[in-house]
Amino acid sequence: MATADSNSPASPLDSPGDALPLLTVSPKSEENSTGGTMTAVVVSILIPVLVSLALRRRGQKKKSAAVIVDVGGEPGYAMRNPRYLSLLETPWEGANTIAALFEDSCKNNPSQPLLGTRELIQRETIKSSDGRPFEKVTLGKYVWQSYSQVYERVVNLSAGLVALGLKKGEKVAIFAETRAEWFIGLQACLRRNATVVTIYASLGDEALSHSFNETEVTTVICDRKQLKKVLDMSAQLETVKRVVFMDDDAIKSEPTLSGASSSWIVEPFAKVESLGKESPVEPDFPSPSDVAVIMYTSGSTGLPKGVMMTHGNIVATVAGVSTAIPNLTPHDIYLAYLPLAHVLELVAEITFCAGGSSIGYGSPMTLTDTSNKIKKGTKGDTSELQPTLMTAVPAILDRVRDGVRKQVDNAGGLKKKMFDLAYNRRLAAIEGSWFGAIGPEKTLWDQVVFKKIRAVLGGRVRGVLSGGAPLSGDTQRFMNVCFGAPIGQGYGLTETCAGGTFSEWTDTSVGRVGPPIPSAYVKLVNWDEGGYKTTDSPMPRGEIVIGGPTVTLGYFKNQAKTDEVYKVDERGIRWFYTGDIGRFHPDGCLEIIDRKKDIVKLQHGEYVSLGKVEAVLMGGHYVDSGMLHADPFHSYTVALIVPNQSALEKWAKQSNISFDSFAELCDKKEAEQEVLSDLVKVCKQGKLEKTEIPAKIKLLSEPWTPESGLVTAALKIKRENIRKTFAEELKKLYV
C-alpha cells in the first residue's frame, strides 16, 4: 500500500468508523423504551423475522471446486481448476503480452473512463495536540481520462523516452506512490520492450541503491517526493542517466542538481510527453517470453530480491483471476490505493483494465472521510468514488472492523443491542443456520443498521479481493455481514505473479484461500521434518508448490537462490516451492496452516508455529500489531505487542490508572497484565497449546510502520528487523 506520510502522527489508515452514525434509531426511542416508539420498532422487526423463519434455507449440495490432476515433478497431491482441461495462458486470443492486452482494451473501450484522479484543492500543515506538524488536504471530484486519452499519453511518453535516449532492453525503475502516472509509465516502457523495475516508495537507502545498481537501471520515473531522495544519493547510483519526475500541483520549484547527478537528464513527466508528441516513433512490442517486470520484494528478511516476471507470466495470472471475479464489466469501478510495486495491486490494475473497468486512485491517508490527511468536511476517496470493487491486505480490513466496533461500543444502549441482534442473525444466515436472517428480515437490517456502515466504503462495494497475508475468520465474517460483500481470498506470491488460488465468491467458509485458478496447478509435497504428509487423514497436507505459466523465471542475478526454490519437471512445467504448508479440503479448496521458516523447536522438543500463533494474537482486544518470539534454549514463548491506544487508554481510565502519556501507560505492570490476560483468553479460544501461548509480553507504544522498517509496505512484520530493534526487550523477557 502507499506508505504513511512521515509527518502524520497516526497509522496509515485511521479507524474509518470515527464519527460514524451507526443506526437510524432516534434518541427518543431509547429514552421511551416502554412507549409507542419502542412498540413500533419491535413490531417492525418481529414481522420480517417471522417471514425469515418461514423461508428457511435448504441445504445445497456443494460442488467440487478443484479436481485431482496428474502432473510431473516431485510426487505429491496436485489439483487444478475443473472449469478448464488445460491451463489458461491468455485472457483472450492475441493478448499474450501486457502491451497487447492494453492495446486491445483501449481499442474496445475508447470512450470508457479508465484512470481517475482527485482534484487537489488545498494543502495545509497543522499541528497535532502534542505539537507535531502534519498535513491536511482538501480534495475535489475525480477527474477522468478515457481509455483513448490514456492510450495517447502512453504513446507520447513512450516516444518521449526514446527521444531522451532510452533503448530496447534497458531497465526503467518506477519509484513512486500509486497514481495514474505510475500506470501510464509502466505501459509506456512496455511499449518499448523495456523492463520495468518496481521499487517500494518506503524502501531505505541501502535497499534502494542495491535495487538500482543490481538491475543497472538507466532511467528513473519517480514522483516529486522521491525525486529529492534519488538526486541526493546520485553518487551511489552507478548506471542512472535520466530521471523523469511526475508533476505535483503543490510543488512548483525546479529540482536542484548536485554532485554526480549534474550529468543526468532530469525532465518533468509532461515535458517528456510533449517531446514524444512532437517526435512520434513506431512501437517496439515485446514477446511473451520477454521480462516485463523485475519486482523487488519488500524485504521482510534481508535485502530485497528481484523477481523476474515475463509478459506471459503476468497475462496468465490476469487470465486466471479474470475468471474468478464474477461479471467484471465496464460498469465496475475499482479503487486503487495499495502500492503498485506490490504484485497484488499491479495484477489487479492490469486485470481491471483488461475488463474495460474504471480505476480511481486514492491513498491510505485519504481513504475515508475520517482518514488522517482528510480535512474535516472533505469526502474521503471511498465516499467520492463509490467503488464497486476493492483490494485490501488483511491489516486494512482489520482496521475497518476495529473502527466500526469502536463506534458500536461507544454508542452503547439500544443502538448496540440492535447492532448485536442484527449482526448475530445475519452471521447465522451466512454460516448456514436455519435461524439466520434472510429475505425481508435481511432487508430490514440492511436499511436500519448496516446502510450507514456500508457508506464508509462508498456504499456500492460488491466484492473485496484480499491477499498478501492470511485473513482472520472474524474479520472476513465482519465484512460479509456489515458490508454485505463477499471476500475473495487469494493465495499467491511475487514469484508466481500472485497466481495460485482464489476463493469463489459464493464460498462462505472462512480460513481457506479457494481452489487453484485456471492458470495454475497447486501441489502438496511431503515435508517429513515437520511431519506433514500428503497421506495424512482426513486431509492431505504438505508444502505448497505452484506450477504453470504464472511461475516466474527466478531471482535476478541470484541463480543459487533460484535453483533452491524453482524446479522444471520432465514435462517442461515450472514449479515454485513456496515454503508455506497447506492442506486440501475435500472440495479442493486450499487452507494455509503453517510456514516452514516460522516453526521453532523449544527446549523440551515442542514445535511452535510463529505465524499461526500471531494470527490468533491479532484477535486480541488490545492488539494493533504483534510478534511472537520463541527461543530454542527456553521452554516458553514471549511476545512484543503494540497495543491499540484507544482501547488500552479506555481500560486505564475505567480502572482509575493515571498516566501522562501512552508510553508511560505501556510501561505499567497493570496494563501489561491486562493485555496478557486478554491474550491468554484469546489463545485458549483459538485452541492453542500451553507452550504456544506467550508467557510474558512487552508493550511498545510506537506503531510499526513501513518507514520504521519494522513492517513491509503490505504491513507484514519484518521479523529479523524487529528482533534486532528490540533485542534488549526480548532479552529481559527471558530473565
TrEMBL record:
One of its GO terms (molecular function) is long-chain fatty acid-CoA ligase activity. Keywords: ATP-binding, Ligase, Nucleotide-binding. Residues 132-556 form the AMP-dependent synthetase/ligase domain. Residues 1-10 have a biased composition (Polar residues). CDD domains: LC_FACS_euk1 (cd17639). GO terms for cellular component: endoplasmic reticulum; membrane. Residues 1-21 are annotated as: Disordered. It catalyses: a long-chain fatty acid + ATP + CoA = a long-chain fatty acyl-CoA + AMP + diphosphate. PANTHER family: ACYL-COA SYNTHETASE LONG-CHAIN, ISOFORM J (PTHR43272:SF83), LONG-CHAIN-FATTY-ACID--COA LIGASE (PTHR43272). Belongs to the ATP-dependent AMP-binding enzyme family. This is AMP-dependent synthetase/ligase domain-containing protein. It comes from Marchantia polymorpha (Common liverwort).
